[in-house]
Amino acid sequence: MPESLPMNDGNGVYSYRKNSQLQKEGSDVMMGLIKEAILEKMDIKILLASTSNASFHIVDFGCSIGPNTFLAMQNIIEAVTHKYQTQSKNIQISPEFQVFFNDHVTNDFNTLFKSLPPERRYFASAVPGSFYGHLFPSRSIHFAYSSYSLQWLSKTPEELVDEKSRSWNKGKIHYIDASKEVTSAYVAQFENDMEVFLNARAKEIVEGGMIVMILPGKHSELDHSQVAAGFNILKFFESSLTDMINEGILEETLVDSFNVPLYVASPKDMTKVVKRNDYFSIERMEITESQSKIVDEADAKSLIIHLRATLEGIFTKYFGVKISDEMFARTMDKCEEISAWMKVEYKKASQLFVVLKQISTKKDLVIFESGLLDFLEYLFSGGS
Q: What angle (nearest 5°) sits at the alpha carbon of residue 214, between those of residues 324 and 141?
């Protein structure tokens, strides 16, 4: 069972709803690319012919509690509507849209649905459950979207907390600046998770349907220590935990057995998994960059609050509320140091943008032929 690690719920000062601006900025950069992909790569006639009704089904995998998901759905629907009207000039009526908002069962769906835009042009449904598994009937989804969700692994690689393993990540909470063996364990877990994700989507998405994924990314040629997505800042959380160990506030063994289940992928990582999966064609894949807005200590404080909204659930689940609060407070005290470091190291924020299209493959042909042979054998045997 994949770990449930939702963002901070509600509308409090550390809630994800009030601290998801960085994800919004990253997604906003991509909206033009998504519209291009829909207009250039989507075939409405094939998509709607693949299902028994004329409604168009969209899923946001990892929707959290808004508001970013609503903006994304609005932009996608506008692009699909434009494509529909362009491709079907003789038909003035656009399809009805059904949007499925998916996240972990512990996600705050109440806050999400209380915030639904009243002017929305779609029917909305919640689909709780991990996207590392099947969630929808076969061939029922036309467009799948996931933004800043697939960097989260389904679990922490087990070998990282095994003292007898070469991948034991003693004293660290992540793979950045860790050993090659630790990094390899993270890579293997990412590849396994993405394969599970794509296999599930391959059954759920209609032929010609699309997946758009946005996640923190890095250039393939860069070392993992050069992650430009801001996650290098985890070293400061690690430093705060180490200070607490040295002061006798925290047991060293607790830190030795904790790792953040997050991986920043490269185009090379993603291409390898997609090609091995063989159910999707890569229509577009690239790293996009936006200039860092970290210019002073106040910006560093805002970043820490943002990361708290994202990561607090993970730290609290493992260390408890008291230790987690202390760690975030100590890291906030390092803002001057963090700001100076980021001016040098964090020049740009990088995102991996991926567009995939569902295709017929040799795997499908084998399944079809096997089913056909069984059917013919049934007929020739007299139906007995």
A: 110
